[in-house]
Amino acid sequence: MITLSDRATQLQPSPTLAVTALFKQMLREGRDVIGFGAGEPDFDTPDGIKEAAISALRAGKTKYEPAAGSVDARNAVAKNYSQRYGCEIKPENILISCGGKHSLYLIFQAMFNPGDELLLPAPYWVSYPEQVKLAGGTTRVIRGRVENEFKITPDQLREAIGPKSRALLLNSPGNPTGTTYSDYLDSGASYTVTVVAAGEGNCPVDVNRCIKSVGAYKETKRAIQIVR
Q1: Quick one: fold of 98-227?
Q2: How far apart are CA 109 and CA 111, in angstroms?
Q3: Along the 228 residues of the chain, how does pLDDT read in single tens digits?
Q4: Which of 2, 28, 39, 227 is deepest in the core (most CB within 10 A)?
Q5: Partners of 141 in the beta sheet?
Q6: Where are the CATH 3.40.640.10 domain residues in the chain?
Q7: How far is CA 108 from CA 96, 104, 132, 214, in A?
Q8: Is 111 in contact with 167 (CB distance < 8 Å)?
Q9: ∠ at Cα 170 (132, 115), nearest 5°?
């Protein structure tokens, strides 16, 4: 029998996958149910994306690319997001991964030493604490209040920062609440930790709110922006 590592046995099963599996089982049973588990759209991939993938395959674009992504793709991302968020983003600062979870895993593995702490506003996506645990770190949860749209305040953040604090994960628009921190860094909060900003999609939930990249704030000297 194969023995798993200690870090593997300490991981908790994903509640999201459990809910999704139950949802699919209920569908097979013919029950009328709506799934609120995995964030998967109920429509097919748009034809334009399908055709672009087919064209790339026919053009022979099936070989290894640089680990950070192709030069053309990183140039396009840098140009698009520099214009969208009003800050200068250079191609050499772009890394294209297979998804948000993959990016976060890489960040935590690269940043965290055993005992380092992630500051995590709640409600939060269930994978965050387990990814930090895999990197040997711990999680300090900061509870967002209903009356503040589930957002934490600068005072809460200052009080939470301790000697082991390594990073703040700021999920905006948030999963599962959809709330945004559009004016959060303008509030004057001073950071002694790296801000890891993860966005659920690259379009605002509320079109009347401006979602701003953390890189556009002069106050934020150390920031990593993840856009799905």
Answers
A1: Aspartate Aminotransferase; domain 2 (3.40.640)
A2: 6
A3: 888 888 888 888 888 888 888 989 999 999 998 888 777 777 899 999 999 999 999 999 999 999 999 999 999 999 988 888 777 888 998 888 888 888 889 889 999 999 999 999 999 888 899 999 999 999 999 999 999 889 888 889 889 989 999 988 888 777 888 888 765 554 444 455 677 766 554 443 333 444 555 555 554 445 555 555
A4: 227
A5: 120
A6: 98-227
A7: 16, 6, 6, 18
A8: yes
A9: 30
Name the token pair of 159: 């009080």
39 contacts: CB under 8 Å, gap ≥ 6: 175, 200
The residue behind tokens 């700021």 is 170
Report residue 141 as tokens. Answer: 């949860």
Q: Which two tokens stand for residue 63?
A: 């070989």
